[in-house]
Amino acid sequence: MTNTPKKPLPALQPVDDTGGVLKPEHVDSVVAAATESHAPKTLRSYRTAWNQFVGWCEEQGYESLPAAPETVAAYLAHRADAGLSRSALSIDRAAVRYNHEVAGLDPTGSAGVKRVMRGLRRRAAGTEQKQATGIRANDLGAIRATAMHPRTGPQGLRRESAETAAKRGRVDIALISTMRDALLRRSEAVALRWSDIEFRDDGTGRLTIRHSKTDQEGEGAVQFISKDSATALKAIRGDAEDDERVFGLRSGRAVSQRIAAAARAAGLKGRFSAHACRVGMALDLVAAGASVSAVQVAGRWASARMPATYARAELAGQGAVAQFYAAK
After folding, report:
1. Predicted TM-score (pTM) above 0.70
2. N or C: which end of the chain has fewer CB atoms below 10 A?
3. What is the pLDDT of residue 43?
4. Rounded to 10 degrees, what is the CA torsion of 181, 213, 272, 245?
5. Are residues 182 and 221 in contact, defined by beta-carbon separation less than 8 angstroms?
């Protein structure tokens, strides 16, 4: 059995047109550029997934680099049997591909591995977690009406003061309103600084997203902020500096917990997480007549598949059968 490294390998040292090895300073530049082709968070995920693959290969007596396509297929099946989601399996496969591509190899592209992945996706189709419940416009109204009510902590041991509840509630309203308008992902809400928000004379605002999941090159995006959201943001600004975090939250999990707590306090029923804001706005946009492609652009989805999935009930109500009955 061959010993293999447990960290992603550096990119291969490229060769110039004459077949000679490049100078060290040129190699360093090319390697740095290749590394930056993936976001740091993605590379961390690949590192973790790759280490797990290497460990499994060592336990089973398989070679991990280069790995045979059959080894990759067996590993993915093993991971699926352990209960991993489709998205996690995709990361596993991508990590193996990444660490082989730098060596000019890719066992994950074989027909056999592709067939295994299709089979695993079909198997998992009925067991994936349910979609987050969307926070729609009327739900936001309920949250606004209850956000500043004092809440009792776990086991009813402590109750917020009116001042604390008002301060927390203003942040909840600004957070959820802004995440809906800009269709923010939770990581984007965490990263948002006051310097990223521009308040316009007409009462609306513009929000700049510096980096996002589907913007690996960091080109950025500018999103519209309604008058209500702009007002809610102004209410929590205070004397905060431009480089301070808008919502003061340090993790995506904290964003999800905050939104779920606000939804519960408003008496809403469902599965609420940070994604509820994106889902809810997608539903409202489709209900208002926006096309799926327009929603895709607004939410910065890589394809129309996800917004179409979220809005399938709304789309059914606008379909040919619904129009047939509406015309009678």
Report:
1. no
2. C
3. 79
4. -70
5. no
Name the token pair of 122: 């079909």
- Residue 275: C-alpha distances to residues 96, 184, 266 (Å): 29, 8, 18
Contact in structure between 14 and 22 (CB atoms under 8 Å): yes
DSSP sequence for 278-327: HHHHHHHHHHTT--HHHHHHHHT-SSSHHHHHHTHHHHHTTSHHHHHHHT
Q: What is the CA radius of gyration of the chain?
A: 24
Question: How many CB atoms are closer than 10 A to CB 328?
Answer: 4
Tokens 């309203």 sit at which residue?
173
Place of tokens 């917990």: 257
> How is 238-285 classified by DSSP, letter by letter?
TT--TTSBSS---SHHHHHHHHHHHHHHTT--S---THHHHHHHHHHH
Read out DSSP for 93-107?
HHHHHHHHHTTT--G
**Burial letters for 120-147: b for 16+ Cβ neighbours within 10 Å, e otherwise?**
beeebeeeeeeebbbbbeebbebbbebb
- Of the candidates 179, 167, 176, 168, the one whose C-alpha atom is nearest the C-alpha of residue 141 is 176
Please, is 90 exposed, middle or buried when counting C-beta atoms within 10 Å of its C-beta (0-12, 13-18, 19+)?
middle
Residue percentage of the chain with pLDDT more than 90? 43
- The pair of structure tokens assigned to 171 is 């942040």
Determine the length of the chain.
328
**Six-digit token string for 119:** 């089979």
Q: What is the DSSP letter of 129?
A: P
Q: What is the pLDDT of residues 97-156, one digit of tens each?
A: 887 776 667 777 767 677 777 776 666 555 444 577 999 999 999 999 999 999 987 666
Kindly report, residue by residue over 167-181, the tens digit of the pLDDT: 999 999 999 999 999
Which single residue is written with the structure tokens 């008496």?
Answer: 267
At residue 92, the 3 state secondary structure works out as: helix
